[in-house]
Design a protein that fits this description.
The protein has 13 helices and two strands; from the N terminus they run H-E-E-H-H-H-H-H-H-H-H-H-H-H-H. It is mostly helical and 273 residues long. Helix 5 runs parallel beside helix 9. The longest helix is centred in the middle third of the chain and has 33 residues.
């Protein structure tokens, strides 16, 4: 049997740990955007299996609501509110409801421990998952908007504004959904909170604001997706005020930054427990 010298055991990468004072330092953590891209691709691949049922349910729900509202609302500003709210509701169903369920389940089954051991910033995990889930809402949102315009006789001229509405409203709702899922102590409660949030988006986003009681109108102003709905609804007019549309989108973006920051804080809080 051959003996290994003690010096060979203590020597690591050409340095003597006995005199170095400790183990070799770890490598630098991953940067935000490369980590975000990696998490996004992984989440997109994971959720791809459920893409068709998810799109069908979210789109069918919103189209069904517009068909029901067609018997109550004839046209004008109320029709614009119904179509805009139903379109953004597709985003709320995925970004708010399903993301709350996902993070609630991830916390309960120990999935956060996996991310906590990786050199990935918490913001990359939250943003990557939110972006992946929001990506599935794009086809359904456009289909809902086109069907709604056909039902209520609204123009399709400015439908391109959804390119800005979907990511901004999606970011605001996804941050809220992730925070609800991460802060809920049990996955069942996370599912309940996600369902309640989507119900609030349905009630406060689809119904015309002037038909609501005053307390609900104030609550509507607190809903993150309201400003995306308002921006989209204004584009159906004969001469949209683009300055006001841009202001609504800017408010929606600001709310999105705040909600994603809260979700990142909730991720750090849940990961260390």
């Amino acid at each position: 049997m051959s003996a290994v010298p003690l010096e060979a055991v203590l020597r690591v990468d050409g340095r003597d740990e006995a005199t170095d004072g400790g183990p070799a330092p770890l490598g630098p953590p991953a940067r935000l955007f490369p980590a975000l891209s990696a998490v996004y691709r992984a989440q997109l691949s994971r959720a791809r299996v459920a893409r068709i049922p998810l799109l069908f349910v979210a789109t069918f729900q919103s189209v069904g609501i517009m068909i029901l509202m067609r018997g109550v609302v004839d046209g004008g500003g109320e029709a614009r509110a119904v179509v805009a709210g139903s379109s953004v509701l597709v985003v709320a169903f995925v970004a708010l409801n399903l993301l709350a369920q996902y993070f609630g389940q991830l916390r309960s089954d120990g999935g956060l421990d996996h991310y906590a051991t990786l050199p990935v910033p918490p913001a990359a995990v939250v943003l990557g998952a939110a972006a992946a889930y929001a990506s599935f809402t794009v086809p359904g949102t456009f289909v809902t908007a086109v069907v709604g315009c056909a039902l209520f006789g609204l123009p399709l001229t400015h439908l391109w504004v959804l390119v800005a509405v979907i990511p901004l409203a999606g970011a605001a709702l996804a941050g809220l959904g992730a925070a609800l899922g991460l802060l809920a102590p049990r996955p069942e409660l996370a599912t309940l909170l996600g369902q309640m949030g989507m119900s609030a988006a349905l009630l406060l986003g689809v119904l015309p604001a002037d038909r609501m009681p005053a307390p609900l109108q104030y609550a509507r102003d607190l809903l993150p997706s309201t400003y995306g709905v308002e921006a989209f609804a204004r584009t159906f007019g004969p001469d949209p005020d683009w300055a006001v549309v841009a202001l609504d989108l800017a408010v929606c973006a600001g709310v999105g930054v705040v909600s994603l920051a809260v979700a990142t804080w909730a991720f750090r809080r849940a990961a260390v427990r």
